[in-house]
Amino acid sequence: MLPHPCQRCGGIITPDDDESTWHAGHIIDRADGGGDTPEDTAPEHTRCNTAAGGRRGAAVVNARRAAEDAARERTTRWW
Ligand SMILES: [Zn+2]
Questions:
Q1: What is the CA radius of gyration of the chain?
Q2: pLDDT on residue 38
Q3: What whole-number distance in Å separates Cα of residue 2 and Cα of residue 27?
Q4: pLDDT bracket for residue 13 (50, 70, 90)
Q5: Ligand 1 center–CA 74 separation, angstroms
Q6: How many whole angstroms separate alpha carbon 46 and alpha carbon 60?
Q7: Whether this model's pTM surpasses 0.70
Q8: Which of 5, 24, 54, 73 could in theory staple to 41 by disulfide, Cβ–Cβ 3.0 to 4.6 A?
């Protein structure tokens, strides 16, 4: 399987890299219907996976904030 480019940043992960710095990540997140078969996973840096999770979380928070702002605006107009 290695060496293989990180599926998120493209940096080459080699068998010499410490195992704590990378892991097999899902090409399609399990939450989006991806599986655990070798075809559905590829190596990626742990830090790249964490960064992606952070962005996904931020998008959810921002969407919730936008919905709250829209609801508040409607309430303000009614009064
Ligand atoms: Zn990477």
A1: 19
A2: 75
A3: 16
A4: very high
A5: 43
A6: 21
A7: no
A8: 24
CA of 8 to the centre of ligand 1 (A): 5
CA of 51 to the centre of ligand 1 (A): 10
Backbone angles phi, psi at 18, to 5 degrees: -60, 135
- Per DSSP, what are the bridge partners of residue 4? 13
Task: Give me ligand 1 centre to Cα 12, in Å.
Answer: 8
Spacing, Cα 9 to ligand 1 middle (Å): 4
| Ligand 1: centre distance to CA 45 (Å) | 4
- Residue 14's pLDDT band (cuts 50, 70, 90): very high
**pLDDT given at position 54:** 47
Ligand 1 center–CA 60 separation, angstroms: 23
Q: Strands 12-13 and 22-26: what pairing?
A: unpaired
Distance 21 CA to ligand 1 centre (A): 9
pLDDT digits (tens, 9 = 90+) for 55-65: 554 455 566 77
